[in-house]
Amino acid sequence: MPLVKLIIYQLRNISEATLTFNPKINMIVGANGSGKTSILEAIYFLGLGRSFRSHLTSRVISYDHKAFTLYAEIHNGNLTIPIGLQKSQNGETQLKINGAHATKLAILTQYLPVQLITPESYTLLTGSPKNRRAFLDWGVFYHDQLFYNNWARIKRLLKQRNAALKQCKTYNELQVWDNELCLLSDEISAQRQAYFDRLIPLINTTVADFLPDVSITSHFFCGWDKKNKSLQEYLTDNFYRDKQLGYTSSGPQKADVRFKINGIPVSDVLSRGHLKLFVYALRLAQGLFLNSFNNKQCVFLIDDFSSELDQSKQQLLAKHILNSDAQVFITVIEKNSIETLFGQERTVFHVEHGKITVE
Ligand SMILES: Nc1ncnc2c1ncn2[C@@H]1O[C@H](COP(=O)(O)OP(=O)(O)OP(=O)(O)O)[C@@H](O)[C@H]1O
Ligand SMILES: [Mg+2]
């Protein structure tokens, strides 16, 4: 499902651009501050309905404008799906897919599964479990159609439970929430575990090529120690502590995926460049999974391709990216540094002060 066409209006320093993309490799070349990452930001908006750089949409809209607008065409088999998205300063969103108004931005994910790699991507491994849950859930969401409803339901339930937790005096008052919470938690954990179990062999194959000298083990933590106690027991036993904290401290909202070398977290062992390669391996594995089991094509957005990787690793990475058959958008400051890595089936865009030209 490649993105074949994109029209951008008033996004960051891009006032207007009409871009026809290559179904395989797209290189976006330009000096610092020219607008390269802003193109990726526009594509990310089409995939996930939000930015990866700013929580505030108003920051993304060009200065002195009221809204940014994106028109896109996505190929799906023989079909071309038009998508229009407008985000305004006043918080309004207009979304049109195939000519019909859509109310939920989450629906966008069905059309353009986007995987992003930036120079900060190593924080997936060094940062909080929240990012790793998002990584895992991205894959489960595509793999298991029932997951999204469970996930949305449990988010609402936890909100209600946490509000009740602050008000109530005894645990019994919470039991009404916890019966459903425990059932849903088991379901979500099983869905996450099933996906992760199937993803691990794909991760291992790529890692064996990227980091042949290390042996990394992968482990899914469901959010409570199952071997020790059931979630129901944790919820009952932690009642006074959770009440003090003001939130529920055990459950699927605390899930994590952990990667270790000789029992030590990878973040404490690997160099920055190697951490980044490992993140590439994780995201490539998700792309391969989507392709092999769900028959969908992932779109990779790679910001600042060359950063922190030596020439041989860049070559290896380019080989894997080409093999994945996915559509790729790569930003780079100097084209020469990567030109030879990606073969001839590519389109090069030059960006200068928000103006984009094709080579
Ligand atoms: N809301 C906005 N309106 C107009 N211009 C903006 C806005 N927000 C940021 N900019 C400008 O847009 C430009 C594009 O930034 P972008 O991050 O896309 O550049 P880049 O080519 O990726 O640079 P680098 O190589 O340094 O990463 C910057 O010069 C920035 O100052
Ligand atoms: Mg940039």
Name its key features:
359 residues, alpha/beta, Rossmann fold, Glutathione S-transferase Yfyf (Class Pi), Chain A, domain 2, 2 domains, 10 helices, 15 strands, globular, binds adenosine-5'-triphosphate, binds magnesium ion
Mean pLDDT: 94
Q: Over all CA atoms, what is the radius of gyration?
A: 22 Å
CATH architecture call of the largest domain:
3-Layer(aba) Sandwich
**Corresponding CATH superfamily of the largest domain:** P-loop containing nucleotide triphosphate hydrolases
* CATH topology call of the largest domain: Rossmann fold
Question: Given this structure, which CATH class of the largest domain is correct?
Answer: Alpha Beta
Low-confidence stretches at least 5 residues in length (pLDDT < 50)? none
Give the strand content: 15-25%
Instruction: Tell me the distance between the termini.
Output: 24 Å
Query: In total, how many domains does the architecture comprise?
Result: 2
Helix/strand structural class: alpha/beta
Task: Count the beta strands.
Answer: 15
- The percentage helix is 40-55%
Which H/E pattern describes the elements? Answer: EEEHHEEEEEHHHHEHHEEHEHEEE
- Broad shape: globular
Major sheet characteristics: 6 strands, antiparallel
Strand order of the largest sheet: 2-1-4-5-6-7
